Amino acid sequence: MKNIKTNILKIFRTWLLIGLCVVFCSALFASDSIGTSSIFDLIGHKEMVTVTLEGDINHLRENKRSKKEVKAILTFEDENGSERVFKTDLTIRGKYRRMFSEGVPPLRLDFKKKDLEEAGLAKYDDLKMVTMFHEDKDEAFQTLIKEYLAYKLYNQITNLSYRVQLIEVKYIDSNTNKTAKEYGFLIEDGAQFADRHQLIKIEDVQNIDQTKYDRKQLETLAVFQYMIGNGDWNLDMVKNIKLYEKDGDIIPVPYDFDFSGLVDASYAVPNNIHNISNVKERVYLGGVNNIDDLSDVLEIFKSKKDDMIQILEDCKFLSKENRKVASEYILSFYEDMSFRENNSAPMKDTLRTILSGR
What we know:
This protein is an alpha+beta fold. It is 39% helix and 20% strand. The protein contains twelve helices and ten strands. A hairpin with a 5-residue loop joins strand 2 (70-77) and strand 3. Helix 6 (137-157) runs antiparallel to helix 10 and helix 8 (215-227) crosses helix 9.
């Protein structure tokens, strides 16, 4: 009997040690995954990085509906000036820009996790690439930069936002050897974003309980979209937002700002359900009915005013005229909020009057 008890105790201790080892190793690996640089981090060592994409580029230009994965090679220099080369699969993504882009459509870059691991990188293998829409390169470039800046402004307001990286892209068509230089920006892997903030991505976005949203984060998103004049999002339809969960709360994260008044893309048209005549007219799509309920969130925007204006005015890639127009558009939001030092009366069409008229 004593031997049986001894053996049971030994077995228990053995399984306990195994369990502790599994927990420790899991935590260690998770920590390494979060702490190790990703390919997005590797590329993002300065504001604009030059990359080369070689593959069947003509197929991407000419077959906007295609779901085919195009094998490609991505090449760039890292922070130390060393050339880095990665195989990647390119697929066309998006809806409107996918179909009507006059250049290379928006892309998804899918890397092999094994290749990333062998390069000493975390296994965040999915990058989204926003590309230039028009054949008119100057107009397309300015539109691209303004959308990039929208992401940078949201980074100022909340850390629960996607990071972006500007790139100068040299496309090489592998069949013809023809080259073209364009610009774009990368959006970080959603899995890396989730890990950075210990979030869980919500895959099934149907029948979301509206009461589960993190109210402050939702109000922050709604006021930001109002500030940049973006009516091209919808909470009920989960349009142009991704949803994540933390401690039972739902965190909405926006993307795609090209239909906003700040970007003012030539192809953008207002949503007719909002009763506005152009995209520069602001519409508030949040849930509150009283501006006083937004006081805490508005204080965040007030505190970030100078930083955001500085980002716009310092952007060397934006033309002088567009820097002026973009800055004035954001400043009009602060006039709307009645944040002027002389405490003059708010303008006629303001968030306050919009909410009071609900």
